């Protein structure tokens, strides 16, 4: 039984599975796809179809973009800061009320273990409030004083203005978090938004659309959600001349396609792409602390994290000791049904992703790596897309498994002899998202961190990541920043006005 097309929370089945809204939000109306098409959503822990999502078309996307354009050009959203704060605080409060429903949808779509959902549910809800408050206090008009010019002194004012219509394209690994991270600062900055969630996680987007439509005063067209099973719908968003900016998180391959599609209209792009981060373990590191943590980080999201330091670089003097500690943690890691409290690693999100992970592991072994533990499907978990926590040692830094993003619970280990060699191996990548350094001498660790060509570095497990600090990649890991003042300013352009004293 459904209520307005929405399964209510009490209808979650005994395993906790809960289907999300099968409608999209376009121009203020919750609606099905133009031709009525829908696609299936599969729960990765059971391999069962658990519901459907609207299979939006390029035509639906066109209507959503038109609505966002109208709302930006003709509405008062971009000019009414107080109203924007009011609406986003409503969104925050409504998400708080829907928190358990959102959590169940997340677990249903992604297979994320209930025990580790905090960063995917509580954090994004908190971030809605953060951006509402941050945006309300932001200084949108700045007087930079008098400047000398050949024609005499001129006062210069900087006016921070919304970019316009923002297209937000999100991936499936942390869907609610990224749906919020890509849209709420954009909205608070005065833009209108069209969100295109990933095929595998449509409900974390459609639920947001439902909450916006039913529980906030956000005007029609300001926030739109178009779910679809077709990549061409995201491609249509990134090519549409009515869109001023694309914010995207996902693979580097798709990032390149988006850049190319954005080029004819010189759209602003904010891209968070792939990573292949290295963790340099220095000789004096506390391995008993660093190695279990490194193994845990590789497993908790089933390795489906772009910032994961998946290449462990160990000094030859402590090589087998480090491998032993990593292996012990991985062999004892609680893998299993995501609904069971205490389980820390669930399944991969889909069959194809697990195939990709297993294929990369096989390529590593074929290229001469030593399989220390894992490498296959857990014998006790034949149903669900589970992968064993896997450790590969003696990995050649130039081999495929050391160069390609795996997105699975897999660590590779490579020995090194000198700091210079460790840095060279770490920087031997097309990516530049994150990195990690472990060592007792923090000054030395900091000096190594400074040599890594990445956007972010963790030293001794101290996280670089948070709403109040900029996060972005170098190399083929992306363009621009999320979070912090820099992240907010991505959704604004600066108009410099010269005027009389
Ligand atoms: P993955 O390969 O891990 O599925 P992608 O980077 O392909 O990740 O997908 C991330 C998001 O990009 C999804 O929302 C997907 O629909 C979208 N997408 C895929 N191809 C394109 C494209 N050519 N243009 C715009 N968006 C795309």
UniProtKB/TrEMBL annotation:
Keywords: Oxidoreductase. It comes from the Bacteria. The keyword Oxidoreductase applies. GO terms for molecular function: oxidoreductase activity, acting on the aldehyde or oxo group of donors, NAD or NADP as acceptor. InterPro entries: Ald_DH/histidinol_DH, Ald_DH_C, Ald_DH_CS_GLU, Ald_DH_N, Aldehyde_DH_dom. Belongs to the aldehyde dehydrogenase family. This is Aldehyde dehydrogenase. It comes from Mycolicibacterium fallax (Mycobacterium fallax).
């Amino acid at each position: 039984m459904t209520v307005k097309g929405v399964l209510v929370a009490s209808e979650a089945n005994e395993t906790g599975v809960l289907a999300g809204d099968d409608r999209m939000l376009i121009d203020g109306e919750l609606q099905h796809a133009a031709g009525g098409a829908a696609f299936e959503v599969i729960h990765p822990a059971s391999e069962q179809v658990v519901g459907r999502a609207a299979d939006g078309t390029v035509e639906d996307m066109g209507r959503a973009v038109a609505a966002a354009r109208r709302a930006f050009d003709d509405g008062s959203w971009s000019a009414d800061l107080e109203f924007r704060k009011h609406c986003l605080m409503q969104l925050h409060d409504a998400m708080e009320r829907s928190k358990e429903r959102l959590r169940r949808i997340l677990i249903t779509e992604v297979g994320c273990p209930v025990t580790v959902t905090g960063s995917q549910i509580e954090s994004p809800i908190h971030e809605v409030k953060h951006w509402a408050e941050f945006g309300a206090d932001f200084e949108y008009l700045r007087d930079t004083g008098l400047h000398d010019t050949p024609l005499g002194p001129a006062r210069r004012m900087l006016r921070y203005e919304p970019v316009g219509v923002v297209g937000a394209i999100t991936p499936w690994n942390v869907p609610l978090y990224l749906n919020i991270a890509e849209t709420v600062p954009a909205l608070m900055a005065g833009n209108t938004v069209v969100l295109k969630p990933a095929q595998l996680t449509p409900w974390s987007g459609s639920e947001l659309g439902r909450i916006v439509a039913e529980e906030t005063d956000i005007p029609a067209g300001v926030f739109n959600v178009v779910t679809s099973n077709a990549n061409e719908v995201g491609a249509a968003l990134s090519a549409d001349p009515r869109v001023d900016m694309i914010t995207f998180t996902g693979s580097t391959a798709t990032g390149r396609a988006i850049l190319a599609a954005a080029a004819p209209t010189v759209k602003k792009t904010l891209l968070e792409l792939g990573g292949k981060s290295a963790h340099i373990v220095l000789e004096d590191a506390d391995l008993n602390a660093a190695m279990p943590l490194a193994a845990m980080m590789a497993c908790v999201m089933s390795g489906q994290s772009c910032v994961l330091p998946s290449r462990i670089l160990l000094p030859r003097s402590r090589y087998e000791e480090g491998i032993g500690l990593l292996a012990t943690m991985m062999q004892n890691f609680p893998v299993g049904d995501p609904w069971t409290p205490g389980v820390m690693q669930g399944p991969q999100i889909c069959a194809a992703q697990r195939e990709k992970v297993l294929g990369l592991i096989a390529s590593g072994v074929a290229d001469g790596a030593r399989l220390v533990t894992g490498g296959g499907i857990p014998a006790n978990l034949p149903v669900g897309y589970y992968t064993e926590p896997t450790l590969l040692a003696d990995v050649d830094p130039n081999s495929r498994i050391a160069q390609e993003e795996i997105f699975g619970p897999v660590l590779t280990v490579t020995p090194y002899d000198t700091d210079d060699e460790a840095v060279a191996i770490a920087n031997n990548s097309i990516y530049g998202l994150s990195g990690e350094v472990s060592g007792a001498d923090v000054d030395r660790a900091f000096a190594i961190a400074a040599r890594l060509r990445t956007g972010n570095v963790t030293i001794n497990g101290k996280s670089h990541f948070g709403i109040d600090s900029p996060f972005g990649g170098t190399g083929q890991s992306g363009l621009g920043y999320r979070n912090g003042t820099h992240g907010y300013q991505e959704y604004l352009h600066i108009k410099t006005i010269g005027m009389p004293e």
